[in-house]
Structure formats: structure tokens, C-alpha cells
Amino acid sequence: MVTTNPFRKTFVGxxxxxxxxxxxxxxxxxxxxxxxxxxxxxxxxxxxxVLMVIDSSDEQFNxxxxxxxxxxxxxxxxxxxxxxxxxxxxxxxQSIQMLPGVAHVFTQPVDLAAVDVYGSKARQLAxxxxxxxxxxxxxxxxxQSVGDHFSEEPHTFTAPDLPPAGEVxxxxxxSVMPGYYQTSEYMAGTVAVGIVLVESNGVTDPSSExxxxxxxxxxxxxxxxAMNWWAELEPRANLSFVYDDHFTHPLPTxxxxxxxxxxxxxxxxxxxxxALGYNSSSYFTQVRDYNNALRDTYNTDWAFTIFVADSSxxxxxxxxxxxxxxxxxxxxxxxxxxxxxxxGPNYMDAVATHEMGHIFHALDQYSGAQQACDRKSGYxxxxxxxxxxxxxxxxxGSIMRGxxxxxxxxxxxxxxxxxIGWRDSDNDNIFDPLDTNLPVTINHFSNAENTITVDGTAxxxxxxxPRRDSVTINRLTGxxxxxxxxxxxxxxxxxxxxxxxxxxxxxxxxxxTPGQYTLYIAATDSAGNISTEYxxxxxxxxxxxxxxxxxxxxxxxxVTPNKLAxxxxxxxxxxxxxxxxxxxxxxxxxxxxxxxxxxxxxSNYEEFLISIINSAQxxxxxxxxxxxxxxxxxxxxxxxxxxxxxVKDVVLTFLPLIGSGS
Length: 662
What we know:
alpha+beta, Collagenase (Catalytic Domain), Immunoglobulin-like, 10-stranded mixed beta sheet, 5-stranded mixed beta sheet, 11 helices, 31 strands
């Protein structure tokens, strides 16, 4: 439960758009290493800050988010019931402003005092918006950083509460969806972020730190900027962050975190989670319960928690044992201090960006972390071949090496990108973890008086992880069918909507034209996948007069005379009889013999050729071509194949002769 969360609502955090509407973006290659990684160039969309009125409803908020997504927009930062930061086509900005519950839509930096009329939260949100749309001067920020950044000791840990590998399915069930322990398997989709500041109350330790309003605002700005760094770096990941606010009102603890070693997080994290109503004896279980509640409440794919300890009065901005920023590989949480050693609070975004890489399984790469080149991590089990510890395959600037320059330069190497799931092996603009198979089955088929009814099941098979439990965040978005090469049509979801990983469907349609058909059925999902292998079924529609005997002509509706010399077609008997002869006639003339492609009419399926006599002399105009078959019993089709064709003039193009000159 999210007991103290003032936004206990279920918002639109996941929709068919989420993965199915993949942005078409120009990209530039930033690495030539084994797994190519792309970073987006600036696109043509408009950034907007949608501020809701104070008393806006859940329905109004959901409507705004759904509208943004329906208009090919991307809601990148979601502040439940309060605001949305998004990218949208420029021509829809005005229409968003007109939606119920919208107070204002901003596209430029905001005068903070001017938004106070919209409520106490508006200034807070506007400050975050300004930090993204008009960031502070980089030189000014750098001057506030002392330059003594990551220490040599490792600062990435493995959560001690994980079940032994291979003994317990981390999904907690047979579901292909992420389970209890799987709250950050790969960096794509929607992510709930719990921002938790803790405040000592002096019960056990003297209270030496106290969060100020400005400090809390800066933490908020910096964390959202860190999330934005990842979202802007790779639009194909379709990242969207939903924030749970426990920074406006920090959660109480009896100890003063910054004065203790990092291992004493067991006390202050336990206190903070207990204040939210999570009372397990294990503080890791408390945080996992909170993360799963966030994921359920906000309907996201993933969730993790960021804890920040105040260190504004501390001399070195470290815990007593020297740690200042660390994360658990794959979650469930990360920890930072306000000053983060030498980074300073104004570079908290760089620190948080690095630590978030760990949350989604990226390994450290600076030499002091002692991470070998061949160590593997992540859903895709990718090596750490950009590590500075050893002689690795590449040596590139990367956010996982720490420091501020990779953050400022928007740098990530291909190995770290692969560890968080950003690999596209088949170059289809769908990252491998999202590149799922969509098997479709036909469970029942009937043809009653040419009314076709099909019942079946479509499902999602996750992209297989080499070492971890395979899961998907994709959802089915539809099932479609067609006969032969005709247009696709939509099947119906038996429960009313295609929105899960397995769906029963129904096809009901009629066929009236006699012939032999193949029914194809395919599924689609939210990442843009379509079934690679269709479910198929043969369908025979008998002629009410001719029974199974049927003839078809392949000819465009408009041709030039020379095309009449080589017309293809087929005759067949759907009841198994033998086709012994095929004839044709042109514009009501005399029936003429067609020629069998294989040399003889002697089977139940025969392809043939028609060559109109003197076709080159046919004048432009409308003509009718007919063809009919005769079976082995001497029966000749009554309802012959008939096709009208428009013969047009041959257009001659004369090219000038070009001499070589003298």
C-alpha cells in the first residue's frame, strides 16, 4: 500500500502507444563496437509543460495523457494529478490547452511567481520545468564542484534478499510479465520513481541536518533532470517517468544518516518505509513492497526508489565510512547524499544518472571498481568491455565511468547500453528485450453457408534472456486477419480489448466469391511487433452451380496491348476432380484453348496462359476476358471467370541522341 501518498490513483501509465508508437527519429552512431548504440538528434517536436487545475479529476488527467499519446506525443515526466512534461507535434499544443482540467500549457521558461495562482505545487513543478528547458550555466555549476569525485572503492552492490539463481522464478509465477523482484530488468517503457528524503527527529541521534525548502527543490530538479538525461538519450526506449513525492515532506527517522556508515541504512530506511506503512522486518522487503505498490498504483512497467540523505552541514558530504552514492544492481534502490562527495548538489543529476544505470544492471567502468572486461550483466548478459580495469575491447567516454564529462557530453558506450537492454540486433528499431514473438493459434474454425467463424488465442513470447528469467512489458494491441493477399481486417478481443500478454479472439466474416482461399491471422503488440509466423487455414467457397470447379484470371484492370499476349490464370477443382481443359474468349468472341503451364491439363490444380490473338492491334478501350474449365467428367463451368480490362495507348518516350562532338 502507498499509505501516505496523496495521489493514490491509477493513472494512464501504459497504453498501446507506450511501445507500439515508436518515435521515428534521426539518429547518429556513437559507437562502432559490437553492439551499435544510437543517440537521438534533436527532433521537430515541441516540449510542453501541461499544468492541471488544482481540483482536476483523475479522469481529466488521464484524458490529457491519453490525448498526448494519441497525437503521437510522448509524456516523459508525469506528476500524478498535477502536471505532465511531454513532447508533442507543434500543431496540437492549442488543442491540449482546451482539454478539461488543464490550467495552462507552457512551452517556454516560466516566471515562478506567476504560477502561484495555480496552487502551492505549481511553483515546485515550474522550477523543475525551468531546470530542463533552461538549465543553469554549466561553468557556474562546475565552479561549485570541488572535483574530488568517485572514490576508488566500488559503490555497486547486489541485493542480499534475492532468491538463489535457478531455484526461484523471480517472476513469482508462470506469468511472462515481470514479477516481485523484477522491478528494473531493462530500461524501456514506464518507470515509477519514489523520491524519498529522510529527516532525523533527534530521538536516537542528535539532529544535525535539516532539509530547507530550497534544498528539497534542488533535489527534485536534479533527479528529474537525471531521468530526463536517459529519456532524451534514446527515444526508442520510450521512457516515461512517474514520480511519487516524499521529498516535499521528508520521512522521519530516529538516526542522523550522514553521521553513520552506509550500512546503517538498515535503520533509517526501515524508519522511512515504516512511516509509509510497510512493516516487514527486512528493509529490503519494505522497499520492494513499496516499489511494487508504486508499479501497481501508477500502472507502470518498472519502479525503484531514490533515497537522499541531507549532508548540507557535513564537511565531506559522505557517510562516516566514506560512501556517498551507491546503488543495488537491478534495484530495488539507490542512495545519495545531498553533496555527493566532491560533486556538489548541483551535479546530483550526473550522480543520479550514473546510479540509475546500475538500477537497470549497468556495471561500473572506472578502474577502482575493479570490474573485469568479461564480467557480464543485464537482461542481455552483456560483457563490460569498456571497463578501465584491464585491457578491454574499447575505450570510450561513458556515463558508467563516473565524473561529469560523460553526463555533459551525453555519452554512453555500447556495452553499458547493452547491459540496460539497449541493443537492436536486427536493426528494426525495436530493442531486443522488446522484440517479442507473437504466436497465434486457431482453436476452432467453421464455415456455415459461407460465414466464416474462427476462435483462437494470441500471446506474447518474451525475448529470451541468456541468464535471467525472460519477461516482457509488451502488451497485445490487436489481432488481424486476411484472405490471400487482400487487406487486413481486425479481429475482436473476446474480453473487449487487446491489452494483455494473452488474448482470446474471434473472427466472424463472410465470403461470397467462389474460390480457394488461405486465411492468415497475425497479432500485433505495443512495441510494434507483428507475428512472424501467421496462423493459417484453407477455406473453400463452392460455386452454387459449378460446385468445386473454379477458374481465376490474373490481370490488372488497366493494361497496354502487349500485356494481352501473356495472361496468367489458374483452374482447380476444390472437390478433387481433374481439370482437363481451359478455354478463354476475348470480348464475347469464340472460345479458344488456353495453354497449360506444365504441359498438360491432368490434375486438380492447373495454371494456364492466355495469349490474345493479334493483341498488338487491339485499340484502346474497355474489353472483357473470360475463362472456363472443363473437368474429367466433361462438365464445363457455367459461371466462367470474367474480368473487364481497360486497354490504354502505349506511351513512347524519345530520348535525344547525344554526339561525342568533334
